[in-house]
Structures are given as structure tokens and as C-alpha cells.
Amino acid sequence: MSGPAPRFAVIVIVLDGERFLAEAIESVRAQTMEDWELVVVDDGSRDATPEIVADFAARDPRIRGVAHPDRRNLGMSASRNAGVAATRAAQLVFLDHDDVFEPRKLEALGGLLEAHPEAMAAFGPNLRWRSWNPDAGEADAVQDLGAKDGVLAPPGTLPTFLTRSDATPLGPVLRRRAFDAVGGYDPAFRGMHEDQAFFARLMLRHPVAVCREVLHRYRMHEDSCVAAAHRAGTALAARRRYLDWLERELARSPLAADAALRRAVRAARPSRRAVLSARLERIALNLAGRAPRRGRGPRAADSNGSPQGPA
Known about the structure:
With 311 residues, the chain is an alpha/beta fold. Helix content is 37%, strand content 15%. Helix 7 runs parallel beside helix 9 (235-252), helix 9 (235-252) runs antiparallel to helix 10 and helix 9 runs antiparallel to helix 11 (272-288). The longest helix has 18 residues, at 235-252. The protein starts with 7 loop residues before the first strand and ends in a 23-residue tail after the last helix.
């Protein structure tokens, strides 16, 4: 690829995303800021995803599709890292294949980073988007990030989404140098908590900027990794593994001496008894044929297929 690098790189990771992928891509093409490249990372799809990406790429040279060697499924973190490696822009932003950007997303958050050179990421609240489905029983709602707009020093909003997963940031604009400095996404997180792990690592070390404008629609639906984890009774076990990881990560960070933060991490960890109880309860419900289907929970959207994100 020749010529100057674009300002923004948008990375979409997807597994069997034919239902919503085109709408996500169109929301990038509708941006008021047009200086971007879009890479769609196919994490082993078996549906029409490759054809959808190829069609967009044929019509718009800013769009490309990539896949893992032998079209393997490597998980959400590895896919995000592969997407970044395939781009050149200095500012990065991730879009789940079933979500959409509002038209001013890149312009607004890119401008916020430009106004605050000390910040390594910029984000705002997302819309918990249920009205896309005419049969939805709940209204749309704006995410509560638990923070005022402005620049936040480390640990940023980590203390908030540590106790409320639904406050996890979604689709921030990141400086590539900060992404590289923290080592990208941890491949150990193939699904749930991959974004919380990344944002925790980032916010333990760098300031972030927050705005109040809603620039991202987070589609709420049942086909998500979080919903699947709840049905399987594994969600609490996944959260415990993440918090065990976070305790080790905190000990290696510049905030290792923050006793209040250490206590908060320990307090958030579910007990082994609670993990086992949740698993057994869900097994019993499944056997009885009464397992409720839960929508995209505290933060769901698995690029590995369906939706993805904090859980």
C-alpha cells in the first residue's frame, strides 16, 4: 500500500457476522471524517461474511479484509491485534461487527485527542440500542460511564467498570503508540473480558479523555458470547479469571502501591463457592429445559462471532 497513512484505522473483528456486518461497515462509510482505513478481520467465518467484505472492498479502496493463516479461529484478542498489524494509521478504533458508529464518531473523538495531547484514548457513553428490534421489550438507554467529561489520570474509569461491567468503555479512539506500549490485547482472553483487560492495562498507565456525546450504538441482542456464558453457567468463572489476572497486572503497574485499588480488585472477585453454585444452577436449568436466553449483558459482543466486549 502506497501513499500517506490515513488518520484513523477502524478494525472490525467478526465470526459468522453476516446478519449485521454490512450495517457496521456502512456506518464507517457514513463518517463525517473521511480520512480512514477499515480492516475487517475474519476469525474463521463459515457464513457469507467473506463475500460481504469482498463486495465492500471492491467498491471502496479504503476497505480490506484479512484472515488468520488457514482461516483459523484464534479469538477476539488475537484478531484485534492482527487488525492493528494490518493498518498504518496513528489513531485506532475498534468496532464490533454488530454495532454502529454515529456519523461524528471519528471527528469528535479525534478532535478530543487533538485537544488533549496528554490523553492516550478518548471515549464517550454508548447507546444501549434495543430499538433496532421492533419487538424489543425495553427502551434504549445511554450508558453511565461513572465519570465527568475531561481528562482522567490513571486509573481512569477502571474503578467504575471494575464494579459495574456495563460501564466498560466501548470503541474509544486510541493512539497507536499507546496500544503498542501496553502490548495490545492479551491473547489469553479469547472471548469474555478481553476489552476490560486491555482497558485496565491502558488506564493503569495512561490518562484518558472522556466526552458526554453519544457516538456509538451498542446493539443489544441474544446472540452474544456473554449470553452464551450465562446460559452455560460460566460467566462468574470467567470474571474470576479476569480479576485474578487484573490483580497480577496491578502489581506490575505504576499503581502497584494503590492499596484502595488493590482492595477493590479483591472485593470484586466472586468466591469459588459462587462460581460453582452458578455453574450447577445453570446446568440444572438447562436439564429442565428452562434456561432463559439473556441479551447482550453487561457488555457483550463477541467478535468471535456475535457481539463482543466487556462482560
